[in-house]
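fyi for ur records
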Amino acid sequence: MKIIFLFASLITGIAVWSQQKLPITATEKKALIDSLKKRLEQYYVFPDKGKEMGQYLAKRWSSNSYDAISDYNVFLDTLFTDITKVHHDPHMRMGIDPDYVKSIKEEKTRPLPTKEKLEAERALYRKYNYGFSRVEVLPGNIGYMALTEFAKLNEESKTVVASAFEFIAYTDAVIIDLRNNNGTYPQMVQEVLSYFFDKPVHTGSTFDRQLGKTVDNYSLAKVKGKKIPNKKLYILISQNTFSAPESFAYTMKNLKRGVVVGEVTAGAAHGTKGFIVNDKVVIAIPYMRGIDPVTKTDWEGVGVQPDVAVKADKALAKAQQIIMENALATVKDPGEKFALEWGLVTVKAQLNPPSITNELKKEYAGVYGVRTISIEGDHLIFQRGNGPKRKLFALSEDTFEVEDQNNYRLRFVRNSEGKVEKIVGSDNYNVTREFLRTNKPN
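which gave:
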């Protein structure tokens, strides 16, 4: 789906101008309402809703509902509140921003960006790697990508995307994390999703109210990097997932190309841009919407519904659990099976953290040869000889992971009388050693 976003100028302009007291006359109010009504009826993505919003403002004016308002900002706030009473659209914004009004007027005659300006833009994107904040291989041979935004598409950003996919090319499944992704460019959405299809697939259509036409969108036949059309895909979403990343999740879910895990998203589906109301005021109007090939609609106002509903902070662990458990059902190699089971213990502990009581901590505290288990604050502490002290993190009631050593675990073992008599240390290569308790247990 193609989405055009309102420049941040409008938002910053609102913040600046809303702090100033500006008088407004009855004549100015009437002219502003007439202009706003015209823009809504002419450009809003749903013609019937645009007409309804405009008529409601005119009705409120006719009933003298705005007569007592003399401040420009208060008047705009009241108009916007009235608009949202008719139809709430999270993409819509309105405010005083003369600079942005000027920018819109000059848009058609504005020269192309200079080389210096383009380079400055690329330099900014490079600072956060074009939105790819994390790319790694998680336990269980799971490829993981965290995208904080779908950045502007250019040859440099295409290289970043290609490198990210190359890094996870030999994993068994892929997780794309969009929980903290708030939007931006649809071209990058198409670029990323195209890696998951071996040939062009109809991903949706775009209706443009301003131009009065519909355009079909397809995944790209070729990308800069290596495609992974057969790789299992899991997509993480949250309430903060807004607009462009919602389109990625919605499209992949409906095409049965990815499993969506997490919370219902923000529900902002419509492409938006600024329209001039008068020489001071700009309104961001959603004028473009997507038409999914499967649902024949979009996610506006309802959000993307996850296939697997779970709190956002548990979504990654849940996706890992699903992948690992599916892999365990078919794996035959003992080494691979052990590695999956090892990783699954950690994931399950993240989903359902075990509660370790103070009584249990006291039972575990003691000396085990040259290894000491003590209690400091709320944590059990592991120390070997005079080595560094490391916190123990519970994976179950009797099994713990050692701080900064996630490839090593300790398990407390009881004797026939129920007393803790030893600890068993093990690593992720399935090598174990026992350490008998040398002080008398409580």
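The chain has a mean pLDDT of 92. thats all i got for now
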